[in-house]
Amino acid sequence: MTQSPQVWSFQSAPQLHPMKVQVNKNDPSTYSGLIFLGPYAYSDNAEYGQPGSLILDNSGNPVWFRPLSSPNLMNTDFRVQQFNGRPVLTFWQGTLATPPAYTNVPAGSSEPGSCYYILDNTYNVIRTVTAQKGYTSDVHEFLLTPNNTALLLSTLAVPMDLTAYGGPKNGYVQDFAIQEIDPSTNQLLFFWSALQHIPLSDSYEPASSATSSGNIWDAYHLNSVGLTDSANDILVSGRNTFTIYRVNKPTGNILWRLGGKQNNFVIVGADAQFSWQHDARFHLGSGGQNNVVSMFDDNCCESQTVPPGTPASHGLFLNINSSTMTASLQRQFYLSSSLHVASQGSVQTLPNSNVFIGWGQSAYYSEFAPLGNTADNPSVNLLYYAQMPDDNYSYRAYHDNWVGTPSYPPSAVAISSSGQTTVYASWNGSTETRTWQVFNFVGLLVPPVLIKTATKTGFETAIPVTATTPYFQVKALNGQGQVIGTSSVITLIRR
Q1: Coil, strand or helix: which one is 338?
Q2: What is the dihedral of CA 227, 124, 140, 263, to 10 degrees?
Q3: What is the pLDDT of residue 245?
Q4: Strand-pair partners of 66
Q5: Is the pLDDT reported for residue 102 higher than 60?
């Protein structure tokens, strides 16, 4: 749906229709960076705007939007990372099996043909990465490492008789494999299969659910891979096993399990329990054997109704003591005491120690002061709170710094209506434009005349002008007054 009050439209960029967001709170201590979303909607819901990759400022104004050519395509895990010492943009692109249109894979799984893209700060694709060994590039994770390799998740339906687990005889198990790949060559450097290391009996997802998705049992549903304090170990989240794993790469061994049926820790207190979690990340603690694991704790839901007593979804930080093998609550972040998020979600610690949360399969993203809050007082330390339209979601949400210098020129259009001429100027993705200059061409052999200077406002700046000829050009200036982009010459449109 592109014609809606909840969708942006621009005179100078008529091909772009990103969703509008409603910013409900924006405290002065909110982090000053930009916000990165991959908006989409499930196939049985109305989608507002085009799917794609979207950068916004804190006021909800678009900064850059890369729309996808089909509503069946989507981008996820859109964020800023480092590659070869420089900031880049990365995301997964493909088709996701969303309700009710499941095809040959379980709900929320990536369809074959998916891949990952790396873009430089001019918004050109510099690498395309795909999973190897016949696996599908999975929606959940694409992490660039300090060694300029990529850790990613991948899936493959493996034939298996599931009757011993209560599933179909002619069934399959959705294997999740972690792959480490050299993005420059697509060479496979490391491979680890959940099916080879995690017993199927550890799953909380009933094998009988396979009958609703092509007889494929989504027993594991790994959904994040992260780094740890050791270059040899990675942190892995298994949504459908309620477990976070520390895996040693050289041996493939699971060093410990946090949560789930084979939990190796004493989890202290009900507030430290979690289930159906996403986006597990390792943080260095205060020293010694004490470290921290953060996650988005969905706590729900494999049914249309939330079971009574289910805690609200929230960001969760746990102190992990690998000497005493105990896990305890460090802090938590609630947006509402009644918000239950059925899937997805992310938790990001920002450079100023604020915590930014994407609320997954709900329309929200928010930022909190570091100390967090409780379910009884969710407004405490809430600094920023925004809402996407209706059933639009973003798998994860990020807040980060980004400098975009597009390789393409600014866009402009001049329109005359009711005796007033207005020049509309925009430059999709330029973070450095501060001022627009409008020039009028009075003759072919005469230099153009500067007729108006205007401060950039939002994505598109409307500049009323008075001119003698119907030919115009705009130039973008940065904060130092330098010209950083020039549009093509445009001809006045009369309406």
Answers
A1: coil
A2: 0
A3: 98
A4: 53
A5: no
- pLDDT score for 41: 83
DSSP codes joined into one string, 132-160 = -TTPEEEEEEEEE-TTS-EEEEEEEEEEE
Do 299 and 312 touch, CB atoms closer than 8 A? Answer: yes
Tell me how far CA of residue 408 lies from CA of 33, 179, 460, 485, in angstroms. Answer: 23, 35, 16, 9
CA distance 301 to 309: 12
Contacts of 433 (CB under 8 A, 6+ apart): 410, 427, 456, 476, 477, 478, 484, 485
User: Where exactly does CATH 2.120.10.80 map onto the chain?
Assistant: 22-400
Name the CATH superfamily housing domain 22-400.
Answer: Kelch-type beta propeller (2.120.10.80)
**Numbers of helices and strands, H then E, in the chain:** 1, 38
Which range, 37-51, 86-100, 306-320, is most confident?
A: 306-320
State the pTM of this model: 0.95
Whether the CB-CB separation of 206 and 190 falls below 8 Å is answered with no
Across the beta sheet with 364-368, the strand order is 22-26, 382-387, 364-368, 355-358, 346-349
| Strand 216-217 versus strand 171-182 pairing type | parallel
Is residue 16's pLDDT more than 90? Answer: yes
Q: Measured between alpha carbons, how far is 404 from 121 in angstroms, rounded to an integer?
A: 5
CATH 2.60.40.10 is the classification of domain 411-494: yes
Contact 276, 300 (CB under 8 A): yes
Would the pLDDT of 303 be above 90?
A: no
Are the CB atoms for 168 and 210 separated by under 8 Å?
Answer: yes
The per-residue pLDDT for 264 is 98
- The CATH 2.60.40.10 domain(s) of the chain lie at 411-494
SS3 309: coil
